[in-house]
Amino acid sequence: MSDARIQSVRQFNRFYTQVLGVLAEGLMDTPYSLTESRVLFELSQRDNTEVTALRRDLGLDAGYLSRLLARFESDGLVSRGKSAADARRQVAGLTESGRTTMKMLNERSDTQVRELLAPLGEEDQRKLVAAMDTIRQRLGKSRQDNTIVLRPPGPGDLGWVVERNGALYAQEYQWGSAYEALVARIIADYAENHDPAQEAGWIAEINGERVGSVFCTRKDNTTAKLRLLLVEPSARGMGVGGRLVDECLRFATSIGYRTIELWTVNVLTAARRIYQQRGFTMVASEHHDAFAPGQRAETWRKDLYDQ
After folding, report:
1. Is pLDDT above 50 for 284?
2. Which residues contact 78 (CB under 8 A, 6 or more apart)?
3. In what order do the strands lie in the sheet with 49-50?
4. Which of 136, 216, 221, 295 has the greatest count of CB atoms below 10 A from its CB?
């Protein structure tokens, strides 16, 4: 990782903490620090919380959290007691005064964000919020369950397939507009002419984020085609590509196709490995310089009648 990236993250952290004023002695002109406000917020989300769970969720030192709760209890904001399930465990919850204080903190926080966004136009607000969502999603991946969900393409998904194919393969293999134009033609034909009884597409999602796609289209009455398998770099190694190919094979078999084919390029080694593992064999190969010099186009085929 480059020093420049590290410094960019640190610079952003310094900027944003200054914007929010979290370094001040009291957050938003209140007697409470950012950490104290966060503890109150977590307590406000449920009636009673086991202190050990609260400490684990917030990553706080046990002694520090105990002192915070003691202060809140002294101020009348928090009540503490023993867990009904295990008397050895302590639980904490907000009092009515604590909930009133939390309501005040929420209102001030909402006002602060409104004032932060107000000078920006609608488009700039949308871009800013989208960038914040991206930061949260990327840095929060390790705490998410990473369940792979496959669904049919919805509004905007086909355009996303074209955009991501064009951007990813340009970045990774220096493929230019010729490849993106091919993807656009395939997608346009699918959108306009596909028969739902014989063709289908799938978008893979993890934690609500699109991470892959594949399509099963008709070549003729007995042969299906697997097309446009794509997996985002952030989801590689998680089994997304295999799930997409398996779903395509399942669909083609259920429709009654006897054979399935696909067309690929020799440099796409990860995809080729998935095809080999599922019984595809390469039946043709030829020079293909349309996307980048020195590459080979390959046709792979698999019989489905024994599925």
Report:
1. yes
2. 43, 69, 72, 92, 93, 94, 95, 98
3. 49-50, 90-94, 78-82
4. 216
pTM of the model: 0.57
Placement of tokens 């109150």 in the chain: 40
How far, CA to CA in Å, does 269 sit from each of 88, 92, 229, 233? 56, 54, 13, 14
Per-residue HEC secondary structure of 58-98 comes to HCCCHHHHHHHHHHHHHCCCEEEEECCCCCCCEEEEECHHH
Beta pairing class for 223-231 and 259-265: parallel
Given a cut of 70, is residue 256 above it in pLDDT? yes
pLDDT tens digits, 121-171: 988 988 888 888 888 777 776 555 678 899 999 999 999 999 999 999 998
Integer CA distances (angstroms), 9 to 116, 141, 212, in order: 21, 18, 28
Length of the chain: 307
Contact indicator for 20, 13 with CB cutoff of 8 Å: no
Q: Angle 236-282-290 (CA atoms, 0-180°, nearest 5)?
A: 75
Cα(296)–Cα(288) distance, integer angstroms: 5
Give 43's contacts (C-beta < 8 A, 6+ positions apart): 49, 54, 78, 92, 93, 94, 98, 102
User: Checking DSSP bridges between strand 223-231 and strand 200-206, what pairing results, if any?
Assistant: unpaired
In the predicted structure, residue 240 carries a pLDDT above the cut 70: yes
